[in-house]
Amino acid sequence: MARKLIEGTESLKAIATRNEEVGTIRVGVIHSMITGLLPEILTAMKEARPGILVDVHPGQSVDLYQKVLDGTLDAAILVEPPFAISKEHVWRELRRDRLIVITSSTEQETDVLTILRQAPFIRYDRKHWGGRTVEGYLRREKLSPLDRYELDSLEAIVVLVGRGLGVSLIPDWLPPWPEGLRLRKIAVDGAPTRNVGVIYRQLSSKDRLVEAFSQEACKAAKAKELTLRL
Prior knowledge:
Layout: H1 2-16, E1 23-30, H2 31-36, H3 38-48, E2 52-59, H4 61-69, E3 75-79, E4 89-104, H5 112-118, E5 120-124, H6 129-140, E6 146-151, H7 154-162, E7 168-171, E8 183-187, E9 193-201, H8 207-229
Parallel strand pairs: 1-2, 1-3, 5-6
Antiparallel strand pairs: 3-9, 4-7, 4-8, 4-9
Helix pairs in contact: 3-8
């Protein structure tokens, strides 16, 4: 009951200031975007929308999506779901992460399919939507890698690959990556992408605030992409 009272009070405050950019929004963020893009978004929010406070909640796409649906979160930055999004929600794509094969710097083979067929494979967890993108490509190419580990952390995967414990097929997510690694990145022709975006409910009591956050997120993503190309 206390929780409902607090949420009701927050809703009343949001309605009272609906035409103003003042208030707090709860935003979920997948781990690979916390260091890669979130700092730029929060900096932009502080400079351009100082009245909006962003309460950050790290998590996995599957869980964050459900929390947006049940109203626990006002918005989330996550991997695009592998199914149609409800018309009650807005999806704005921020970036597309191409799939790449990563190996240790000592690996001599350059052919992607040969590497994936022969080397010990460190798999991106299939419970993740990004992991399902990887699995879809492997099935399409009729590849059955020699699985050694299956992990839900991209950072952990690249560390193990850098130690020479296997190869992997992962999204080329935004830097920074773990430092001190000796890796090779090999582009995968024709592979699908892991699409990352922001999702939020339309016509909520905080729609003005969340829309402002979404706009700044899109600007930050474009600016980051331009920076990486320079």
